[in-house]
Design goal:
The protein is of the alpha/beta class and 382 residues long. It has two domains: 83 residues, Roll (Urease, subunit C, domain 1), CATH 2.30.40.10; 287 residues, TIM Barrel (Alpha-Beta Barrel), CATH 3.20.20. It contains ten helices and 22 strands. The strands form four sheets. Strands 1, 2, 3, 4, 5, 20, 21 and 22 form an eight-stranded mixed sheet that branches. α2 crosses α3 and α5 crosses α6. The protein is globular. Bound molecules: zinc ion.
Length: 382
């Protein structure tokens, strides 16, 4: 048994000053004020010394970090290193490669997910590509794109041994629209992304079960006042949870604020979209068989196209506080509880019965200690 005492608890729906969290095995068994909860004498006590105690961050869109690519066997190292950024749960995200390479990578990812090392919990795969629109390629290579068909998806899912939980695709390409009920029927979340769909097409997709949008604003038809496009539809339909990259590079803080006001924190999932080059020093690297340049906190192709993000999810939470002006308890909601609800997990809250995925944040909101299912998987030196 463990007890975290003397922390400011962000459940995140409530803030409890100087509260106590009790942990037994993998679960939270008690959350309350110091007066209300008795710490059993046998408990291992962690003194939070007035720091913020928050649910672990959940990242639905992460390609890797520090030179490690989540799309392949290096996923094991991604799992080990993520807790340093407060991330306790994530979807390992792919990008578009030639089909045979993708199938081999999915098998390697499934091997890691079935026998994971200690670290953050990889709860599945987010397949981003190859079912994208060549008109919104972003950093991806359209030569390797294909329209979504149910047969094709099943081949990928089989290689991944059922680990694909979310698929980002362009519903307007080929017969993709007809696949949505099959995806949702199989428990796979249907997400729009890299798409030039019209508002009407998105409306049809929502009717069929579309419920999520990848990196809102990036690589999608923008809002026009006579054609609301994908961006307008994502804002309009409550059924869609909108991913938001809050690295401060992909989206202007005012636009982040607009999305959060229109959708509310309850319908936004904060994501990093971190590249395998996230956290690396400035320089030239290779990813997806192309040179990628890290400079000034961004990853870009030679032509300036953003190639995913350099920041991890902890920076996103800090940016919602510092750039958008949200109070911490609000900023935490899209980074914890909403992402957990999207995946149907008993995570993302400090509450009895929930997984003991917990992060201690210092006064600058930097992770100091990270627990995943009750186990300490990261601790700063001091
Ligand atoms: Zn993308």
């Amino acid at each position: 048994m463990k007890a975290i005492v003397n922390g400011n608890l962000y459940t995140p729906d409530q803030v409890l000053a100087r509260g106590t969290v009790l942990i037994e095995d993998e679960w939270i068994t008690g959350v309350g004020s110091a007066d209300a909860l008795t710490v059993p004498p046998e408990a291992e006590v962690i003194d939070a010394e007035g720091m913020a105690v928050v649910p672990g961050f959940i990242d639905l869109h992460l390609h890797g970090l520090r030179g490690h690519d989540a799309m392949g066997p290096d996923l094991a190292q991604v799992i080990r290193e993520l807790p340093a950024f407060g991330v306790t749960t994530f979807l390992a995200t792919t990008l578009t490669l030639p089909r045979e390479e993708t199938l081999a990578a999915l098998q390697a990812m499934a091997d890691v997910l079935d026998w994971p090392p200690s670290g953050a919990q990889g709860v599945g795969i987010h397949l981003e590509g190859p079912f994208l629109s060549p008109t919104r390629q972003g950093m991806a290579t359209p030569d390797w794109f294909e329209p979504l068909t149910w047969d094709s998806f099943q081949a990928f899912q089989q290689a991944a041994r059922g680990h694909i939980r979310l698929v980002t695709f362009a519903p307007e390409v080929g017969e993709a629209m007809a696949c949505i009920p099959h995806l949702t029927g199989a428990g796979v979340l249907a997400a729009i992304g890299h798409s030039s769909a019209t508002f009407e097409q998105v409306a049809q997709a929502v009717q069929l079960g579309l419920c999520h949008a990848s990196h809102t604003f990036n690589a999608m038809r923008p809002l026009h006042h006579r054609e609301p496009g994908v961006v307008g539809a994502v804002m309009y339909f409550d059924q869609i949870v909108a991913q938001l990259i809050a690295d401060g590079v992909h989206i202007h803080p005012a636009v982040m604020a607009i999305l959060l006001r229109v959708k509310g924190v309850e319908r936004v999932a904060l994501v990093s979209d971190a590249a395998p080059l996230a956290g690396l020093p400035d320089g030239e690297y290779e990813w997806e068989h192309k040179p990628v340049f890290v400079r000034d906190g961004a990853c870009r192709l030679a032509d300036g196209t953003l190639a995913s993000a350099h920041a991890l999810l902890d920076a996103g939470v800090r940016n919602l506080v510092e750039l958008v002006g949200l109070p911490l308890e609000q900023a935490l909601v899209p980074a914890t509880r909403i992402a957990a609800e999207v995946l149907g997990l008993r995570k993302g809250r400090l509450a009895p019965g929930y997984d003991a995925d917990i992060v201690l944040l210092d006064g600058d909101l930097r992770p100091v200690l990270t627990l995943v299912r009750g186990e300490t998987v990261f601790e700063t030196e001091e």
